[in-house]
Amino acid sequence: MSDLFVPLRFERVSPEESRRRAFAWLDEVRRRRTVRDFAPDPIPMEAVDAAIEAAASAPSGANRQPWRFVVVRDAGLKRRIREAAEAEEREFYERRATPEWLADLAPLGTDWRKPFLETAPCLIVMFRLDYEPVRLLDGTEHHHKNYYVQESVGIAAGFLLLALHHAGFATLTHTPSPMGFIAEILGRPKHERPYLLIPVGYPAPDAMVPAIEKKSLDEVREVV
């Protein structure tokens, strides 16, 4: 066997155990909700690191792993991110959003105010890397291209959200547009582009979530 390959570690279980695991996981995932009301209580960062490590195990194009995770705990940085995000979101809600878009958002009760960016004990900022700079022997910089970056980082984001939920944390996916201010505030290199901003913590005791429904299995799955 080539040294480039190792034996697969895989546990084959019975059909009954597969069904048990699948429905247990479905029940747990269904309890995950997007939360906008966070408690300021600290959370165990070892668990956050484990969730990030789980996300970083996601598959990626040519195994290039085109992601970076920046954990923001500093109160001053969180305030700056909130202020900049609210400026962008206010512009969106008051000028850029179409009437149809605003109508779709109305049942969720959202607006330009984003206090959760400051209240949550930590923020995880996911960055996508379209390339990685490599310094050559002659001193020039080569851009080593990454592949299927959007798809790869999207899969890793899903891993991260579920890992954080499984660890007992509440999360929110926040995507202010444009997001360039995040890279500037955090001093990230130019090849890292903000992809997703995730507040992480415990929900506030009085947290409320919209009464929404998900599409049924028959609406999202077709067997041919």
Description:
The protein is of the alpha+beta class and 224 residues long. The protein has one domain (35-205): NADH Oxidase. The protein has eight helices and six strands, in the order H-H-E-H-H-H-E-E-E-H-E-H-E-H. It has helices spanning 15-30, 45-55, 75-96, 99-105, 116-119, 149-166, 180-186, 217-220; strands at residues 67-72, 122-129, 131-135, 141-145, 170-171, 192-201. The strands form two sheets. It has a four-stranded antiparallel beta sheet with strand order 1-2-6-5. A two-stranded antiparallel sheet has the order 3-4. The chain is globular.
Secondary structure layout plus pairing:
Layout: H1 15-30, H2 45-55, E1 67-72, H3 75-96, H4 99-105, H5 116-119, E2 122-129, E3 131-135, E4 141-145, H6 149-166, E5 170-171, H7 180-186, E6 192-201, H8 217-220
Antiparallel strand pairs: 1-2, 2-6, 3-4, 5-6
